[in-house]
Structures are given as C-alpha cells and as structure tokens.
Input
Amino acid sequence: MILFPHDLHPLALLGLQLAGLYFVIITVWQLLLCGLALLALRRRYPEGDTHPSLTLLIAAKNESAGLVETVNRALQLPLENLHIVVIENASLDASLKLMQEFFQLRPSELPNVFTSLTHPRLRLMREPVAGKARALNTGLTLVETEFVASVDADTLVNASGIKKLLTYLQTKPELMAIGGVLDVQAQQGFLEKLQRVEYLRAFLAERTGLSVLKANVHLSGALAVFRTRALRAIGGFASTSITEDFESALALMKAAPKHPIEILPVIAATTQVPHTLTGLCRQRLRWQAGLAQCLWRYKILLTGPLTHFGRVITLPYLLVGELLGPLIELLAIAALAHALYYQLFSAQSALMIFAVGLILISLQNMALIKRFGRREKGMPNSFFVFFYGIFLMLLLRPLLLFPRVFALLTWPWQRKFKSAQRKPY
Output
C-alpha cells in the first residue's frame, strides 16, 4: 500500500531541511535565553522596608472552589497600604454567598459595591456582564493607589515575591508593568507535574532571559502589577480581547518610549493549572487564538519604528516560533514520516539529532531550576525536572499541537472559550 506519493520526495526532503533549520534556531535561542536567565539569577532582589500603595483586582466568575482562600491569603500580605477589590462577574455558583458569609459584606453607598465589616481594606463589586477584562475595568474605577495588580481567583500571591516586585518597580520609573515567576499549586497528577516544569521553564528561561535583553512582551493574567496611571492611559484591559493580559502588554509596549515590561526571577504567586487533558486543550486553544488575535491587532509593532528591542527579536519569534510553530512542527512530522517510510535517510540519524536537542534543552531546564532553587524554597529536584522535561517534549508538546493548529486556523471565528474546572483548595 502506498501511503505517500513518490513525487513528494523532493518536497519532503526540502521540508525536512527547513524543519531542521527551524529546530536548530529554536534550540540555540532557548540555550541563549537560559544563559541570560542564569546571569539574572546572580542578582539579588530585596524585599524593601516600605512599599507603595497597591490594589489587588480579583475577577471571579464561578470561582467558589477557591475564591475565599485566595482573598484570605491576600489579606494576610504584609503590605502597609494594600487594598483588595473582588469583582463578582455574573457567577452562577455560590461565589457571592460565600464571600458575604466569610467576610460579612454589606452594601456601601456606591451601587453594586459591598464593603467588609471585618476587613476594611476589602470591597466587592458586582459586574453583571460576563467577561474578565470588563470585570477588571469595572474594578479599576475604584482604584486610588499608585499600583494595581490583576490576580486570578485561583492564584495565591506570594508575600516575599510581591514585595520584591514593588520594590523593584520603585527603582525603575521607566517600567510600566512587572511580573514574576508562577509556580503550580498541588501537583498531584502527572499532567500537573508536567505543567509545573513547563511553567518554570517558560518564566525562568524565556521571560527572564528576554527581560535581560529588555525585550520581554509577556504578562501573566494570573498576576501582573501595573502602574495605575499607565494602565488607565491605555484604556485599561481590552474587553474584546481573547487574552487581555497579552494585549495589555502590547498596548503598553506601543505607548511607552522605552521597553515597559519586565519579569523578575522571583516566585510571585502559585496558581492552579488544568488537571484534565480536555481542560488543558481548551486553555491552549484560547492562548493560541489570543496570540493570533493580538499579533494581528498590533501588527504595526512588527512593521513600525524599531523603538524597542522586543520589536526586533521577540515579536518575530512569537510570530514564527509560537504562532506558526505548531503548523511547522506538524508539517515536519509529516515530512519525517514520509522520509522514513521511503528510507530517504537513516532513521538512526534523525533520532540522534532529535535526542541531542532534547537532552540539551532538558539539561538547560535542570541547571536553571536547580540554580533558582538556591534562592526559592520548594523547587523540584534535578531528577524531577529532567524526567518530566523529557515527557514534556515527547508527550505533552506533540499532543497540544492539534488544538493549537486548530486555533491558528479558526481564531477569527472564535468568540467564547470554555474554562478548565477548578479544584478546591
């Protein structure tokens, strides 16, 4: 039985050559960012003695599983001038009822705003129209502090990390927003452990390395700290965006004369991740569609004046490596299958090249996270990082190619995305 036409031989070989070049460039790029991140880890980031005023905005839709614990942990943060605004966003579960019971919420003079009798720094707003960005913008109207942070309802803010972020922001007036490293809560299942290595690698290697180059364009929706005036200057969060966190980063980048965003190598928070493959696929479909939408909306950053280093290297990398990368990788797999079936080259050679790249990336992750573990408690050991890093590249990444390619091809017609189910704390 003929699986592939013979006349595809030249096309398959050309595809493999281009895929090999793509693979080499991506591997070298990852190793470079890892080296830069190791340099960043040499620096100490003090917590500081005094901190500027900060408001945490927590948008919550159907978050009864963990919202109370998130707010409780936030109230325990040792910050002198901290305020918390929870925006209940058209929930159909018991989120509002639980908040009213645990924090003794009572109506205030403002419509749809409740204040806590037990915690004066806590307020809750009701936003009847669903949408995270819309909810955050509603909460932003109450903010009177110098800084504001968007926090997911399943995210626990780290006290030491948030103090380091605020202290660093005070010393860098050119920065408009900042983030830190996210760790994963309750890594009980195999899928969650894979995602923990993925998160640590992404934040430590890629985003920290890009920050050294003043080229990071990422902010996490789980926790990001903004200068309030800068966030208001760009109109808050884009309510029509699939990924409002990434769009806000691009909007700041477009508006600021200097590169406005950094990621520090400190644990800023721990967050939940999808614990089922279905939930993970939904999440990555949304992320990929959001990436396509934002790069299309801000395509001027790819073609406009090169005022930021991020325009020179990061956005082209996101376009080729992240947006088109899944399609390139799927086509490379098809070309490789064709070449191996017809014995156009040795399978042993292909496996050797792939293994070398895989081991280099896994060793890079292991070295970086081991170094990070010297300053942050609770980091996984080297065997864990290497073992799960291998499975991340061999199993999880190939599986996620399919929802990512689907999102790439259908994002203009995507309107709503289902959320992954939360686990209770």
User: Anything to note?
Assistant: The mean pLDDT is 87. Residues 299 and 315 are 9 Å apart (CA to CA). Strands lie at 54-60, 82-89, 105-107, 113-116, 122-127, 147-152, 155-157, 177-184, 223-227, 261-271.
